[in-house]
Write a structure and sequence with these properties.
Layout lengths: L1 E9 L2 E9 L9 E9 L2 H8 L15 E9 L9 E5 L14 E4 L4 E3 L6 H24 L8 E3 L5 H12 L4 E5 L5 H7 L1 E6 L1 H4 L10 E6 L3 H10 E9 L13 H5 L3 E4 L7 H14 L2 H7 L1 E4 L3 H9 L7 E4 L3
Helix pairs in contact: 1-10, 2-3, 2-8, 2-9
Amino acid sequence: MFNALLLDKQDDRTVASIQSIDESRLPQGDVLVRIEYSTLNYKDALAITGKGPVVRTFPMVPGIDFAGVVEESTHADYKPGDLVVMNGWGAGETHWGGLAQKARVPAGHLIPLPAGITTRQAMAVGTAGYTAMLCVQALEQHGVAPGDGDVLVTGANGGVGSFAVAILAKRGYRVMASTGRPEEAARLRELGAADIVDRQTLSAPGKPLQKERFAAAVDCVGSHTLANVCASLRYGGAVAACGLAQGMDFPATVAPFILRGVALLGVDSVYVPRERRIAAWNAIAADVPVETIERVASTIPLADAPDSAASLLRGEIKGRVIVDVNA
Protein backbone atom coordinates (compact mmCIF):
# COMPACT_ATOMS: atom_id res chain seq x y z
CA MET A 1 0.00 0.00 0.00
CA PHE A 2 1.10 3.59 -0.61
CA ASN A 3 -0.36 7.07 -0.20
CA ALA A 4 -1.45 9.11 -3.20
CA LEU A 5 -3.48 12.16 -4.08
CA LEU A 6 -6.35 10.69 -6.08
CA LEU A 7 -8.71 12.68 -8.28
CA ASP A 8 -12.18 11.41 -9.06
CA LYS A 9 -15.30 12.80 -10.69
CA GLN A 10 -18.46 13.32 -8.64
CA ASP A 11 -21.51 15.13 -10.05
CA ASP A 12 -19.37 16.74 -12.80
CA ARG A 13 -16.86 18.14 -10.32
CA THR A 14 -13.36 17.01 -9.47
CA VAL A 15 -12.83 15.68 -5.96
CA ALA A 16 -9.28 15.36 -4.60
CA SER A 17 -8.41 13.20 -1.59
CA ILE A 18 -5.41 11.49 -0.05
CA GLN A 19 -5.94 7.74 -0.19
CA SER A 20 -4.06 4.58 0.67
CA ILE A 21 -3.83 2.60 -2.56
CA ASP A 22 -2.84 -0.98 -3.27
CA GLU A 23 0.18 -1.36 -5.56
CA SER A 24 -1.87 -3.61 -7.83
CA ARG A 25 -3.90 -0.57 -8.96
CA LEU A 26 -0.87 1.11 -10.52
CA PRO A 27 -0.89 1.33 -14.33
CA GLN A 28 1.19 -0.98 -16.48
CA GLY A 29 4.87 -0.20 -16.92
CA ASP A 30 8.40 -1.61 -16.92
CA VAL A 31 9.65 0.24 -13.86
CA LEU A 32 8.29 0.69 -10.34
CA VAL A 33 9.63 3.87 -8.71
CA ARG A 34 9.57 4.84 -5.05
CA ILE A 35 8.98 8.56 -5.36
CA GLU A 36 10.89 10.90 -3.04
CA TYR A 37 9.74 14.30 -4.34
CA SER A 38 7.27 15.72 -6.81
CA THR A 39 6.20 19.30 -7.51
CA LEU A 40 3.09 21.40 -7.80
CA ASN A 41 2.89 23.03 -11.22
CA TYR A 42 0.22 25.26 -12.73
CA LYS A 43 -1.03 22.33 -14.81
CA ASP A 44 -1.28 20.19 -11.68
CA ALA A 45 -3.26 22.94 -9.95
CA LEU A 46 -5.74 23.04 -12.83
CA ALA A 47 -6.14 19.27 -12.63
CA ILE A 48 -6.55 19.13 -8.85
CA THR A 49 -9.10 21.94 -8.69
CA GLY A 50 -10.92 20.91 -11.87
CA LYS A 51 -10.45 24.42 -13.26
CA GLY A 52 -9.04 23.10 -16.54
CA PRO A 53 -9.66 20.04 -18.74
CA VAL A 54 -6.32 18.45 -17.89
CA VAL A 55 -7.37 14.99 -16.70
CA ARG A 56 -8.48 12.70 -19.53
CA THR A 57 -9.58 9.72 -17.48
CA PHE A 58 -10.62 9.13 -13.87
CA PRO A 59 -9.57 8.14 -11.28
CA MET A 60 -6.22 9.92 -11.75
CA VAL A 61 -3.13 10.63 -9.68
CA PRO A 62 -1.96 14.13 -10.75
CA GLY A 63 1.64 15.31 -10.91
CA ILE A 64 3.48 15.95 -14.17
CA ASP A 65 6.93 15.16 -12.78
CA PHE A 66 8.73 13.26 -10.04
CA ALA A 67 12.15 12.09 -8.86
CA GLY A 68 12.85 8.91 -6.97
CA VAL A 69 14.48 5.50 -6.67
CA VAL A 70 13.84 2.43 -8.81
CA GLU A 71 12.32 -0.39 -6.72
CA GLU A 72 11.61 -2.95 -9.46
CA SER A 73 12.45 -3.09 -13.15
CA THR A 74 11.94 -5.51 -16.02
CA HIS A 75 13.86 -3.23 -18.40
CA ALA A 76 17.59 -3.54 -19.02
CA ASP A 77 18.21 0.22 -18.69
CA TYR A 78 17.23 0.35 -15.00
CA LYS A 79 17.92 -1.66 -11.88
CA PRO A 80 16.79 -1.31 -8.26
CA GLY A 81 18.53 1.58 -6.54
CA ASP A 82 18.88 3.76 -9.65
CA LEU A 83 17.92 7.42 -9.20
CA VAL A 84 15.55 8.65 -11.91
CA VAL A 85 13.59 11.69 -13.08
CA MET A 86 10.31 11.79 -14.99
CA ASN A 87 8.74 14.75 -16.81
CA GLY A 88 5.63 14.79 -18.98
CA TRP A 89 4.55 11.84 -21.13
CA GLY A 90 0.92 12.45 -20.14
CA ALA A 91 1.56 11.97 -16.41
CA GLY A 92 -1.38 13.33 -14.46
CA GLU A 93 -3.46 13.42 -17.67
CA THR A 94 -3.68 9.95 -19.17
CA HIS A 95 -1.22 8.10 -16.89
CA TRP A 96 -0.96 8.22 -13.09
CA GLY A 97 1.58 10.86 -12.09
CA GLY A 98 3.95 11.93 -9.37
CA LEU A 99 1.82 13.13 -6.44
CA ALA A 100 2.10 9.74 -4.79
CA GLN A 101 4.63 7.60 -2.96
CA LYS A 102 4.94 5.17 -5.87
CA ALA A 103 4.60 5.16 -9.66
CA ARG A 104 4.84 2.48 -12.33
CA VAL A 105 5.82 3.82 -15.74
CA PRO A 106 7.28 2.71 -19.06
CA ALA A 107 11.08 2.79 -18.98
CA GLY A 108 11.10 5.25 -21.88
CA HIS A 109 9.45 7.86 -19.68
CA LEU A 110 12.41 7.96 -17.30
CA ILE A 111 15.93 9.32 -17.50
CA PRO A 112 18.79 8.82 -15.05
CA LEU A 113 19.18 11.57 -12.46
CA PRO A 114 22.27 13.58 -13.50
CA ALA A 115 25.31 13.30 -11.24
CA GLY A 116 25.57 16.07 -8.69
CA ILE A 117 21.82 16.69 -8.34
CA THR A 118 19.68 15.27 -5.54
CA THR A 119 16.08 14.16 -6.08
CA ARG A 120 14.91 17.22 -4.14
CA GLN A 121 17.01 19.56 -6.25
CA ALA A 122 15.68 17.91 -9.39
CA MET A 123 12.16 18.82 -8.33
CA ALA A 124 13.25 22.33 -7.35
CA VAL A 125 14.14 22.61 -11.04
CA GLY A 126 11.27 20.44 -12.25
CA THR A 127 9.48 20.72 -15.55
CA ALA A 128 9.83 24.53 -15.44
CA GLY A 129 13.63 24.48 -15.49
CA TYR A 130 13.72 21.59 -17.95
CA THR A 131 11.42 23.48 -20.35
CA ALA A 132 13.51 26.64 -20.02
CA MET A 133 16.64 24.71 -20.92
CA LEU A 134 14.90 23.23 -23.99
CA CYS A 135 14.04 26.78 -25.09
CA VAL A 136 17.61 28.03 -24.70
CA GLN A 137 18.95 24.98 -26.53
CA ALA A 138 16.46 25.56 -29.37
CA LEU A 139 17.69 29.14 -29.79
CA GLU A 140 21.33 28.07 -29.75
CA GLN A 141 20.72 25.26 -32.23
CA HIS A 142 19.16 27.89 -34.49
CA GLY A 143 22.41 29.84 -34.25
CA VAL A 144 21.68 32.50 -31.64
CA ALA A 145 24.87 33.53 -29.82
CA PRO A 146 25.58 35.87 -26.85
CA GLY A 147 27.11 38.54 -29.08
CA ASP A 148 24.02 38.86 -31.27
CA GLY A 149 22.17 41.30 -29.02
CA ASP A 150 19.51 41.42 -26.31
CA VAL A 151 17.42 38.33 -25.63
CA LEU A 152 13.91 38.92 -24.29
CA VAL A 153 12.16 36.61 -21.82
CA THR A 154 8.40 37.13 -21.46
CA GLY A 155 6.53 35.96 -18.39
CA ALA A 156 9.85 36.28 -16.60
CA ASN A 157 8.36 35.94 -13.12
CA GLY A 158 6.93 32.51 -13.88
CA GLY A 159 8.73 29.23 -13.39
CA VAL A 160 9.92 28.77 -16.97
CA GLY A 161 10.66 32.48 -17.39
CA SER A 162 12.74 32.72 -14.21
CA PHE A 163 14.84 29.73 -15.22
CA ALA A 164 15.24 31.08 -18.76
CA VAL A 165 16.59 34.36 -17.38
CA ALA A 166 19.08 32.53 -15.14
CA ILE A 167 20.25 30.09 -17.83
CA LEU A 168 20.67 32.75 -20.53
CA ALA A 169 22.58 35.05 -18.16
CA LYS A 170 24.85 32.20 -17.07
CA ARG A 171 25.66 31.54 -20.74
CA GLY A 172 26.65 35.13 -21.36
CA TYR A 173 23.53 36.62 -22.95
CA ARG A 174 22.24 40.10 -22.15
CA VAL A 175 18.74 39.34 -20.91
CA MET A 176 15.70 41.62 -20.97
CA ALA A 177 13.02 40.35 -18.58
CA SER A 178 9.39 41.22 -19.26
CA THR A 179 7.10 41.37 -16.24
CA GLY A 180 3.95 43.07 -15.06
CA ARG A 181 5.17 43.09 -11.47
CA PRO A 182 7.74 45.86 -10.99
CA GLU A 183 8.20 44.80 -7.36
CA GLU A 184 9.91 41.65 -8.69
CA ALA A 185 12.52 43.60 -10.68
CA ALA A 186 15.21 43.17 -8.02
CA ARG A 187 14.74 39.40 -7.98
CA LEU A 188 14.95 39.22 -11.78
CA ARG A 189 18.16 41.24 -11.74
CA GLU A 190 19.56 38.82 -9.16
CA LEU A 191 18.79 36.01 -11.58
CA GLY A 192 20.80 37.83 -14.23
CA ALA A 193 18.43 40.20 -16.07
CA ALA A 194 20.21 43.29 -17.41
CA ASP A 195 17.01 45.32 -17.74
CA ILE A 196 13.26 45.07 -17.21
CA VAL A 197 10.55 45.45 -19.87
CA ASP A 198 7.04 46.46 -18.82
CA ARG A 199 4.62 43.72 -19.80
CA GLN A 200 2.05 46.27 -20.95
CA THR A 201 4.32 47.37 -23.81
CA LEU A 202 3.93 43.90 -25.32
CA SER A 203 0.50 42.65 -24.26
CA ALA A 204 -1.77 44.93 -26.35
CA PRO A 205 -2.39 44.68 -30.11
CA GLY A 206 0.58 46.15 -32.03
CA LYS A 207 1.84 46.86 -35.52
CA PRO A 208 2.77 43.96 -37.81
CA LEU A 209 6.36 45.24 -37.94
CA GLN A 210 7.96 47.24 -35.14
CA LYS A 211 11.37 48.59 -34.21
CA GLU A 212 14.00 45.86 -34.24
CA ARG A 213 14.81 45.51 -30.53
CA PHE A 214 15.73 41.91 -29.75
CA ALA A 215 18.05 39.33 -31.26
CA ALA A 216 15.97 36.48 -29.85
CA ALA A 217 13.34 35.67 -27.25
CA VAL A 218 11.88 32.99 -25.01
CA ASP A 219 8.11 33.45 -24.91
CA CYS A 220 6.01 31.92 -22.14
CA VAL A 221 2.91 34.03 -22.83
CA GLY A 222 1.51 33.64 -26.36
CA SER A 223 -1.30 35.77 -27.84
CA HIS A 224 -0.57 39.46 -28.51
CA THR A 225 2.67 39.25 -26.57
CA LEU A 226 4.12 36.63 -28.90
CA ALA A 227 2.88 38.58 -31.94
CA ASN A 228 4.62 41.75 -30.69
CA VAL A 229 7.78 39.83 -29.88
CA CYS A 230 7.95 38.48 -33.45
CA ALA A 231 7.35 41.98 -34.80
CA SER A 232 10.19 43.36 -32.64
CA LEU A 233 12.89 40.82 -33.49
CA ARG A 234 15.94 41.85 -35.49
CA TYR A 235 16.54 40.49 -38.96
CA GLY A 236 17.15 36.73 -38.72
CA GLY A 237 16.04 36.61 -35.09
CA ALA A 238 14.25 33.71 -33.43
CA VAL A 239 11.75 33.14 -30.65
CA ALA A 240 11.31 29.90 -28.72
CA ALA A 241 7.61 29.69 -27.83
CA CYS A 242 6.58 27.40 -25.00
CA GLY A 243 3.65 28.97 -23.13
CA LEU A 244 0.18 30.47 -23.32
CA ALA A 245 -0.24 32.51 -20.14
CA GLN A 246 -2.00 35.27 -22.09
CA GLY A 247 -3.81 32.97 -24.49
CA MET A 248 -3.59 30.29 -27.18
CA ASP A 249 -4.30 32.72 -30.00
CA PHE A 250 -1.58 34.21 -32.20
CA PRO A 251 -2.95 37.45 -33.71
CA ALA A 252 -0.02 38.16 -36.03
CA THR A 253 0.82 38.59 -39.72
CA VAL A 254 3.44 36.88 -41.85
CA ALA A 255 5.38 40.15 -42.17
CA PRO A 256 8.16 39.36 -39.63
CA PHE A 257 8.72 35.96 -41.19
CA ILE A 258 8.93 36.95 -44.85
CA LEU A 259 10.43 40.44 -44.50
CA ARG A 260 12.91 39.87 -41.66
CA GLY A 261 13.48 36.13 -41.84
CA VAL A 262 12.29 35.66 -38.28
CA ALA A 263 11.96 32.08 -37.00
CA LEU A 264 9.25 30.82 -34.65
CA LEU A 265 10.53 27.75 -32.79
CA GLY A 266 7.89 25.71 -31.00
CA VAL A 267 9.12 24.04 -27.81
CA ASP A 268 7.29 21.06 -26.33
CA SER A 269 8.40 19.50 -23.06
CA VAL A 270 5.95 16.60 -22.81
CA TYR A 271 6.98 14.23 -25.60
CA VAL A 272 10.62 15.20 -26.17
CA PRO A 273 12.77 12.21 -27.22
CA ARG A 274 14.92 10.63 -24.52
CA GLU A 275 18.27 11.78 -25.96
CA ARG A 276 17.21 15.44 -25.88
CA ARG A 277 15.85 15.04 -22.34
CA ILE A 278 19.15 13.66 -21.12
CA ALA A 279 21.06 16.48 -22.87
CA ALA A 280 18.77 19.10 -21.30
CA TRP A 281 19.10 17.68 -17.78
CA ASN A 282 22.88 17.33 -18.10
CA ALA A 283 23.02 20.98 -19.15
CA ILE A 284 20.87 21.89 -16.14
CA ALA A 285 23.36 20.13 -13.88
CA ALA A 286 26.14 22.21 -15.44
CA ASP A 287 24.47 25.61 -15.84
CA VAL A 288 21.67 25.99 -13.28
CA PRO A 289 22.52 26.97 -9.68
CA VAL A 290 20.33 24.24 -8.25
CA GLU A 291 21.46 24.85 -4.66
CA THR A 292 20.20 28.43 -4.89
CA ILE A 293 16.93 27.35 -6.49
CA GLU A 294 16.45 24.71 -3.80
CA ARG A 295 16.93 27.25 -1.00
CA VAL A 296 14.23 29.58 -2.29
CA ALA A 297 11.74 26.81 -3.10
CA SER A 298 9.03 25.97 -0.58
CA THR A 299 8.27 22.40 0.47
CA ILE A 300 4.85 21.03 1.38
CA PRO A 301 3.61 17.58 2.43
CA LEU A 302 1.40 15.60 0.07
CA ALA A 303 -1.69 16.31 2.20
CA ASP A 304 -1.34 20.06 1.58
CA ALA A 305 -1.36 19.74 -2.22
CA PRO A 306 -5.13 20.38 -2.72
CA ASP A 307 -5.15 23.62 -0.70
CA SER A 308 -1.86 24.75 -2.23
CA ALA A 309 -3.24 24.10 -5.71
CA ALA A 310 -6.08 26.55 -5.08
CA SER A 311 -3.62 29.10 -3.67
CA LEU A 312 -1.40 28.71 -6.72
CA LEU A 313 -4.26 29.50 -9.08
CA ARG A 314 -5.10 32.58 -7.02
CA GLY A 315 -1.55 33.84 -7.47
CA GLU A 316 -0.75 33.54 -3.77
CA ILE A 317 2.35 31.36 -4.19
CA LYS A 318 5.70 32.57 -5.48
CA GLY A 319 8.52 30.38 -6.67
CA ARG A 320 8.77 26.63 -6.95
CA VAL A 321 6.69 24.29 -4.78
CA ILE A 322 8.31 20.96 -3.94
CA VAL A 323 6.02 18.21 -2.66
CA ASP A 324 7.53 15.78 -0.17
CA VAL A 325 5.26 12.81 -0.84
CA ASN A 326 6.56 10.95 2.23
CA ALA A 327 6.03 13.77 4.74
